[in-house]
Amino acid sequence: MPNTSEILKETRDYAMVAIGTILYAIGVTAFMLPYKLTTGGLAGISALIFYATGLEIEVSYAILNTILLVSSAKILGWKFSLKSLWGFGLITLWLWVCQRALEDPVTHELPFILGENEAFMGCLLCALIEGFALALCFNFNGSTGGTDIIAAVVNKYRDVSIGQALMFIDIIIVGSSYFVLHDVRKIIFGLVLLIISAITLDYATRRFHQSLVVHIFSRNYSAIADAITKAGFGLTVIDGFGWWTKTERKVLMCVCTKRNSHEVMEIVKRVDPTAFVSIMNAQSVYGEGFDFMKIKVKGQKPIIVFATNNAHKLEEVRAILGNRFEVRSLKEVGCFDELPETHDTLESNAMEKAEYINRFYGFDCFADDTGLEIEALGGEPGVYSARYASENGKDHDSQANMDKVLRKLEGKKGDERKARFRTVIALIYDGKKYQFEGIVNGRITESRHGTEGFGYDPIFQPEGYDTTFAEMDAEAKNSISHRGRAVEKLAAFFKK
């Protein structure tokens, strides 16, 4: 169930889209239609239909919008589509209301509010109103429908602003107006309207989404940092040196939107009214909470992080996944942290590690947790396989681990040495969570055999084979290993 703040945000969005659509309808009805000007988008197409046939603009506008909206709903999501439906539904209503309110009751002609020969001024005013109205709708996660929907689809996947996408589409629509109006001047006016509208749209959109970089200098920086973080904003603490005081200082850097800067400043003033604060406009901000970098790097494969620095595991996984992804290790994404493993199941530990990387480093990622489960030892070492012989629960010593297993199984024969390797892979991909399991059954040998592989490989003999994992080459082991089977399921998932 949505909480109160989410409901208020949604209500605000719908209200602001309603205001934007009123402005849009006023611009079209009062300053475009009387002078037989044309604009881009479905409003332009509907205007041309109106000029050619007399069919009221709101009728064709509603029909064309419905077709576009249904076809794009899957790409843009139902939330955007519902607001688009709200937007173009209101425009349809406001166009009808404005025409009824302004037209002559006898002739049904729309008046020349600016004077009969003021087509250019009508063009200018319509462009300014239309551009601002569109920006208002887009800023609050809605649209007026029509080619705005096409522009939003383009903007979703390409580094092209909404104004640029609309411009390209709309030039084609305005150019085609000659076949209806047979007046080159109207094409020129239409192009001017498009250019000014697009410039207004981009300018207003940037103003709505203006980001700021706030630098805060305060001796009580830790309290300010805690308060800003608690309010939901990210920040960075930078080492500095005050030359006037000749003392080391900490500088807080917080990037936020202009609309949120007032909240940040309130926090600073509440904690330290004497703080020194510098605020700068940020031209562009990319990253979590801001814009997504849509620039394509030639030859760049999708990056996915395997939450390990184990060279053997990486080699094994890269060989199975092939060239579909660029599989990066922890150190290759700048992670040198000890990943948390606080649970008592392989499934929970694997997901905990994947969530840590996804949350703090932002990459799609997968993590594995593997355990050797020996039947005679009640499933030991299980989740503690890597640190089975460690006295402090942290050190990894494969030789000591094998020694402990062999010592505990000393004197046991046949089925008493049955064991299995089990790997669980937890994947976080495109915001969703998945898990894959691979199991290989076998037995623990009485002594070590082979020099390949790692971990318990020299003492694990897979079922149906007379050699240990450590006596197999990498290709043979990968074809039957627990991790290989789990990764194969992962690869099959990606192939789908």
Describe the protein's architecture and organization:
- With 496 residues, the chain is α+β, with helices and mostly antiparallel strands.
- The chain is 49% helix and 16% strand.
- The protein contains 16 helices and 11 strands.
- It has helices at residues 4-32, 41-53, 57-76, 78-102, 119-139, 147-157, 162-175, 178-181, 184-208, 221-230, 258-271, 311-321, 346-361, 398-408, 474-480, 482-495; strands spanning 211-217, 236-242, 247-257, 276-282, 303-306, 326-328, 365-374, 381-382, 418-429, 432-444, 460-462.
- Strands 5, 6, 7, 8, 9, 10 and 11 form a 7-stranded mixed beta sheet that branches. Strands 2-3-1-4 form a 4-stranded antiparallel beta sheet.
- Strand 7 (365-374) and strand 8 (381-382) form a beta hairpin.
- Helix 1 packs parallel to helix 4, helix 5 runs parallel beside helix 9 and helix 10 (221-230) crosses helix 11 (258-271).
- It is elongated and about 110 Å long.
- It starts with a helix and ends with a helix.
- The model has no long low-confidence stretch (mean pLDDT 84).
Described by strand count, sense and barrel closure, the largest sheet is:
7 strands, mixed
Number of strand segments: 11
Helix-strand pattern, N to C? HHHHHHHHHEHEEHEEHEHEEHEEEHH
Question: What coarse outline follows from CA principal-axis ratios?
Answer: elongated
Low-confidence stretches: none
How many H/I helices? 16
Strand content: 15-25%
Distance between the termini: 32 Å
What is the CA-based Rg, rounded?
Answer: 32 Å
Helix content: 40-55%
Q: Structural class, from secondary structure content?
A: alpha+beta
Average pLDDT taken over every residue: 84
